Amino acid sequence: MKRDIIRYLDSVKARDPAPRSRWEILLYPGVWALVFHRAAHWLFEAELWFLARLVNHIGRMVSAIDIHPGAKIGDNFFIDHGFTVIGETAAIGDNVTIYQCVTLGGTNPANGVAGKRHPTIEDDVIIGSGAQVLGPITVGKGARIGANAVVTRDVPPGATMTGIPARPTLVDAQNYNSFIPYGTPCSERFDPQTQQLELLKCEVETLRAKLAQLIEQRDETSAPDRERA
Fold first, then answer.
1. 120-121 and 138-139 beta bridge pairing
2. CB burial string 105-132: b at 16+ within 10 A, e below
3. Any bridge partners for residue 161, and if so which?
4. Residue 25 in contact with residue 13, Cβ under 8 Å?
5. In Å, how far are 35, 38, 55, 56, 116 from 48, measured between CA atoms?
6. What CATH class has 2-185?
7. Number of other CB atoms surrounding residue 133 within 10 Å
8. Which of 8, 46, 97, 152 has its CB surrounded by the most CB atoms within 10 Å?
9. Rounded Cα distance, 187 and 166, in Å
10. What pLDDT shows up at residue 115?
């Protein structure tokens, strides 16, 4: 038990350089939210619905993080800061990092039909602040969801998604396997709009070169006619 706690605290410290010691991490709202959720989930699985909700309610007041007791969460899960919402049928793998104001939300709540409504987050995923991951979709292993992205479709393993709606973004190959805080590449080179502008610039330069070539060919063709004239 002690080793598991130390391993978890070390996994948090590896993703957040702010704490000076493991003791500081014990005061993190994300850690408290996870502790309350473990208890609430055990009660939920035992079909003690009211007690599960009561523990969830206390945990939400303490941490400002709302994790439904039915959500399934793996090892080394870390929520950095609060105001995160995780729905009932969400499933989260190991070593997942979520930042503040993230929603793992469900779809089609109006008809009251039970079933899978929330996302499945596979291992080693990073979800940036303000991101909305909605519906019974799957975010593949090692994927990164950028800040404020809205994801409503499956995300391939290792992909970096940014924007509204979220679209794949190129990342530096050297940083592909490294931890990126907030899941967002901090470089304009990898911004989707910047990439499109660069492509447009390349196309314009290509068209200019072709136009110059056509003008040169025209001049060469018309030169003999001018000499005869």
1. parallel
2. bbeeeeeeeeeebbbbbbbbbbbbbbbb
3. 145, 168
4. yes
5. 18, 14, 11, 12, 21
6. mainly beta
7. 28
8. 97
9. 17
10. 81
